[in-house]
Design goal:
alpha+beta; 19 strands; 3-stranded antiparallel beta sheet; 8-stranded antiparallel beta sheet; globular
Length: 310
């Protein structure tokens, strides 16, 4: 009788074991899926740089190469290079020459950090220019330059993560006071960092920035003043201000508005627009626009979404 009962119970115990194992299997499958997705995303991100750049050199800070017709720059996973919110000089024409980055007030010894994941391409000193400087090629295709530092904390060909300390604030090279000179470049061509980084609010302007070379060639220029360059918008797409790094470009103007145009109280988000570009076009800050529309720091806008301005 005991043998019969034992044999009868064996399938039931086996079924209970399988039942208990099923949730574990599903959980492990989910973990494996997430891990695989992360690996794929990293490989795809790294391949973006390889698609844009055919050369890796430690000799030059930047060298203009062929720009793509369009390129989406992923700004997620960013880290602000410095917690300073004070921009002392904007991108654009200054003292009769192009200033191809922005200057942010830092003090000697302040920590400077990598903006995105990437690899240090250049770590060098230039007495008549950048002083102690670093160039990082990022997985998202951008290259960032950090100039006038008092000390470099990383070496060439070193991999860095967003937020890693890479140097200390300083006043080296062609500099009249301690500050960080920060540049963003695509294929060696300088782009206005303010299109992507909002130092005042310590945030990026959107999850992605869409670069369009065709529009830049048509209307993209750089403003002839020392104030913040304004970007002309055509078909609601941000325009890059400098079509060629090796030529002297003329700065960007904005589309003129007629005095009779009624002031809109709402705005329908179009393709290519960002909170930064929308807020700027209506004389607001990103924080003000978010507050009016009850948007959190992590909320993104979608095409067709209606935003209020009052």
């Amino acid at each position: 009788m005991t043998v019969v009962l034992a044999l009868a119970a064996t399938p039931v115990m086996g079924q209970d074991l399988l039942a208990r194992q099923a949730p574990i299997d599903r959980k492990m499958k989910a973990v494996d899926t997430v891990a695989l997705r992360n690996i794929i995303e990293r490989e795809q991100a790294q391949s973006l740089s390889s698609q844009l750049y055919t050369e890796w050199s430690n000799k030059y800070a930047h060298q203009a190469t062929t720009l793509p017709d369009s390129f989406r720059i992923d700004l997620r996973g960013y880290h602000m290079p410095t917690p300073s919110r004070v921009v002392t000089s904007n991108y654009g024409r200054r003292w009769g020459r192009m200033h191809k980055g922005i200057d942010v007030k830092v003090y000697i010894g302040d920590t400077i950090r990598a903006a995105f994941d990437g690899k240090v391409r250049v770590a060098n000193y230039e007495a008549a220019g950048y002083g102690n400087y670093i160039v990082i090629r990022h997985n998202n295709g951008l290259e960032t330059i950090y100039g006038h530092m008092s000390k470099r904390l990383v070496n060439e060909n070193q991999n860095v993560k967003a937020g890693d300390p890479i140097g200390l604030g300083g006043n080296t090279g062609r500099s009249t006071g301690s500050h960080l000179h920060f540049e963003t470049r695509l294929c060696g061509v300088a782009l206005d960092p303010a299109l992507m980084f909002d130092f005042k609010n310590q945030d990026v302007t959107a999850d992605f920035y869409m670069f369009r070379n065709s529009n830049a060639k048509k209307v993209g220029t750089i403003a002839k003043n020392t104030t913040t360059p304004k970007v002309e918008v055509q078909q609601n797409v941000p325009i890059i201000g400098e079509p060629n790094d090796q030529t002297s470009a003329k700065p960007a103007t904005t589309v003129k508005k007629t005095a009779a145009a009624p002031k809109a109280t709402t705005h329908k988000v179009q393709k290519g627009e960002t909170l930064f570009s929308i807020a700027k076009s209506h004389g607001l800050t990103v924080d003000q626009l978010r507050k009016i529309n009850r948007l959190g720091k992590n909320n993104s806008i979608k095409v067709g979404q209606v935003l209020r301005f009052s």
